[in-house]
Specification:
alpha+beta, 5 strands, three-stranded antiparallel β-sheet, binds iron/sulfur cluster, about 150 residues
Length: about 150
């Protein structure tokens, strides 16, 4: 009888305590701003420097570039950019080294799927992943390059 009363006492105490669980996935989880989530990629900012590819510890980034079609612009533009989330460990190194913030972290983390093939994400998918970008990466937008050659009248 004493044991029953003790048990009920514990139950009653915990019934009035604040909840420590979330109603996930019905209610989305808000992650801290420094959370390392699935990357957003902006092809217009990429200068095809390959630094993200070189620093990646798991070799999960692949990209191709081509000569800038605009004769007034130097350098290359991105053609394809892919991240294989089967092996990406979301370490944040690619975003740390990117000089133009073309690839940045978001707070998004939901990647579960029934097929491994769906974990291979291309630049269109990464560009569409444009919500919950880490706030420090939205403070300093890179100015759009203006064509060189010729002076404004
Ligand atoms: S987060 Fe890390 S593992 Fe993932 S693509 Fe970037 S550098 Fe590679
Ligand atoms: S995403 Fe950034 S680091 Fe990677 S190639 Fe483009 S500009 Fe360079």
């Amino acid at each position: 009888m004493l044991g029953l009363i003790k048990g009920l006492n514990v139950t009653l105490k915990n019934m009035v305590k604040p909840k420590v669980t979330y109603n996930y996935p019905q209610e989305p989880l808000e992650m801290p701003d420094r959370f390392r989530g699935i990357q957003y990629f902006d092809p217009d900012k990429c200068i095809v420097c390959n630094q993200c590819v070189r620093v990646c510890p798991t070799d999960c980034i692949s990209l191709t570039g081509k000569k800038n079609p605009d004769p007034n612009q130097k350098g290359k533009v991105i053609e394809t950019y892919n991240i294989n989330f089967e092996i990406c460990i979301l370490c944040d190194l690619c975003t740390e080294v990117c000089p133009t913030e073309a690839v940045v972290m978001t707070n998004n983390f939901e990647l579960s799927t029934y097929s491994r093939d769906e974990l291979f994400k291309n630049s269109e998918w990464l560009f569409a992943n444009d919500e919950n970008i880490r706030s420090e990466n939205t403070l300093n937008p890179i100015p759009v390059k203006k064509p060189t050659g010729g002076t404004p009248s």
